[in-house]
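Open question from group meeting: does this chain pack into something compact, or does most of it stay loose? Before anyone orders reagents, we agreed to write out a predicted structure and look at it together. Recording both the input and the output here so the notebook holds the full record.
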Amino acid sequence: MGSQTTVPNGAKTSKPVLFFDIDNCLYPRSAKVYDRMADLIDKYFATHLGLPEQEAIMLHKEYYRNYGLAIEGLVRHHQIDPLDYNAKVDDALPLEGIIKPNPQLRRLLEDIDTSKVKLWLLTNAYVTHGQRVVKLLGIDDLFEGLTYCDYSEIPIICKPHKDMYAKAMKEAGVERVEDCYFVDDSYANVSSAEKLGWASVHLVEEGLPVPETPASKYQIRHLEELRSVFPQFFTS
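Structure tokens returned:
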């Protein structure tokens, strides 16, 4: 990656930007990274808040539902050190044994004409987790930058809050919402981006139920379908 955040320093670009979510998007949900992460989050709640297991699970779900991230609820209501949380949850995941290089994904991304569109990562994870995942997938060199949820900043800003999309636009150097394209597996994240004017794609992995009301104009089962959704950006 050219930079963690901006290339260079939020310099304006005349090219559109194609933003990719990372977790459960660039690798499949079936890898169960989220399940392992949820277990670590539940344990963190139980240990650091002194809660019984079931109460910890319920509070984790409540914070996720209310704020989009469990960490925001912990910081807001319990003054938890967010970087300690990151070290014991995201960075503690044994990803090396789960996520492997994906040649098909790499070919898909290499077929995108970067003279026409800039590739950028947009994640609710902290920078260390995001960088680790794309490196394990063998695609870290294909993105110009990464906009991440900065746990060290209070208040914590993450998708689906509109400020997170504004942050991504600033860091990627794009001014017009019409020049923003986005892929994410989260209904809330995609719906929010769509309302802001981004051309958004909801990735609903094979085997998962299709939402009754689509999150956006575009809905796909596999990232390969981006070739037909945004043919203008592909060389083949």
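Observations to bring back to the group:
The chain has a mean pLDDT of 93.
The first strand starts at residue 17 and ends at 20.
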